[in-house]
Amino acid sequence: MTACAIEGGSAGAAATADPEAEPEPEEPGEPAGADGSGLLPESTAAGQADEENGEAEEAEASSTVTDARSHADAPPPPGGFTLTADGAYAARLTAAPGPPGERAWYPERWTLDGPEPYAVPLPLDQPEEPDSEVAPLADGRVLIRRRVADRQMFSLLYPTGPGTGELLLGAVGCAEMTLLPPSPDGRCVYALAAGEDHTSLWLVAGGAFGPEEVARIPGHCSGGVWLDRAGRMLALDRQEPGGGPVKAVAVDLGRQGEVTPLLQIAPGSDDRLLLADPDSGLLLLRSDAPGHDRLGWGVLGSCLPVRFPECLRLPDVAVTPFAVQPGQMLMPESCAVALRIDGAPGSWVGVWRPAGRQLHQFAAPLGWVPGAGYWSRDGVLRLPYANGATPCGVALLEAPEDMEPSAVTGRTGGGEGGGEPSAADAAPVVCKPVPLGQAPLHGAARPD
Questions:
Q1: Which of 10, 44, 24, 102 lies closest to 363 in space, CA to CA?
Q2: CB 40 within 8 A of CB 364
Q3: pTM of this prediction?
Q4: Contacts from 162-169 at CB under 8 Å and sequence distance 24+?
Q5: Which among 3, 248, 387, 406 has the fewest CB atoms less than 10 Å away?
Q6: For residues 390 and 394, what is the distance between their CA atoms, to the nearest angstrom?
Q7: d(CA 365, CA 358)
Q8: Could you give the C-alpha distances from 30 to 205, 302, 319, in angstroms and in order?
Q9: Torsion of the alpha carbons at 284, 266, 238 and 81, rounded to the nearest 10
């Protein structure tokens, strides 16, 4: 593996970030009219983008990027909503109807690759604890992690006739473990267990003899992003033993867990990897190298600097990427990125491309688990949701095209006032939640 340093740094060393000064962004237009339910009404989402100065499009920070290729009223699921890498299956914990505080939790598997999505409940003789975690596999089985005293128990669940089958995999003797996203191969699931001065990486599903420790990594590790389609290269956010900044590293599972640097933006900055697209090499990251926490993007193995788009810097909200459009070979700037936006009105959806300077905002479908979704290769975002009318549905949202500033604002693109359209200029757009079997492939995002 080779490392590329920018602005006079030596190969393999971290270059100092020196981001350019940026103008303070104007107040973006936020979707209004929240009903207090935590989700936005369909009629209130508006397409939005910040207005920028044409001479300060994006801040840049020098980086070293090592090429490491190689039901309706139920409370939110405590363990979230986990998808396979190809979006064919998903799994979550859900609750049977009952009084608040007395709900019985059980796993549920969603099948999303057929003509219409459907959910299969996987309850056993006794309810699950809310801190259990589930992850789907490519063959339709669901891995579950349960904490029993100071041990972690792992099983595979699958539908069998009217009931649920369970295959016990084994146990790991530790108090806390966290499942990582399912491997891209669809067969394996890994988990992290933090120790005093190291973090253990465990293969908990897909091994030959039950859970097995595959690597010990010095320091405290978190996160977990796959860098390739084979499930060999894993990125983790690591803090060295004794403290210090958090840096993303690459773990090579084909070399007994060999660790190499992945992100080095500034010596003292926290540089975390959030998402990666193996096809294009696009990386989505969060770093405080510009002086405060910012969302940025780069390209795996590139010598170009990391960029921090101004349009992703919104006041009073949190913006988190959760899905990247696949299949854009060697075209990272054209990938559509889905973002979860959390603010006082609730959670809604953003769509952005690195090549554009616009953040498009859409209402979330009622019953969407914030941060759950996946892209098709042709740029259609699928958002799983469940509500009283639809116990298992997928809303379709076609990625909007980025418009030239002159086409929206009437200003010339290269003039002093050129930039992104303001919220007042953008037409309101909503994401219509409709079942997959009834929805057209395109046109799911329509003017309200």
A1: 44
A2: yes
A3: 0.76
A4: 164/121, 164/122, 164/123, 164/124, 166/124, 167/141, 169/143, 169/204, 169/205, 169/210, 169/211
A5: 406
A6: 9
A7: 22
A8: 43, 35, 13
A9: -20
Query: Which tokens hold the place of 138?
Result: 């490519």
Tokens 């359209």 locate to 421
- Per-residue confidence at 30, pLDDT binned at 50, 70, 90? very low
- Helix H or strand E encompassing 426: none
DSSP state of 245: -
What's the pLDDT at 26?
36
**What is the distance, to the nearest Å, from the Cα of residue 157 to the centroid of all Cα atoms in its chain?**
25
Dihedral class, residue 379 (left if φ above 0, else alpha if ψ from -120 to 50, else beta):
left
Backbone angles phi, psi at 224, to 5 degrees: 130, 100
Q: For the chain, what's the residue count?
A: 448
Neighbours of 8 (CB within 10 A): 8
Distance CA 356, CA 402 (A): 6
Contact between 285 and 298 (Cβ < 8 Å): yes
Both tokens of 344, joined, read: 């006082």
The residue type found at 220 is: H
The total of other beta-carbon atoms located within 10 Å of residue 388's CB is 10
312 band by pLDDT with thresholds 50, 70 and 90: very high
Phi, psi angle pair for 314, to nearest 5°? -110, 135
Answer whether 334's CB lies under 8 Å from 355's CB: yes
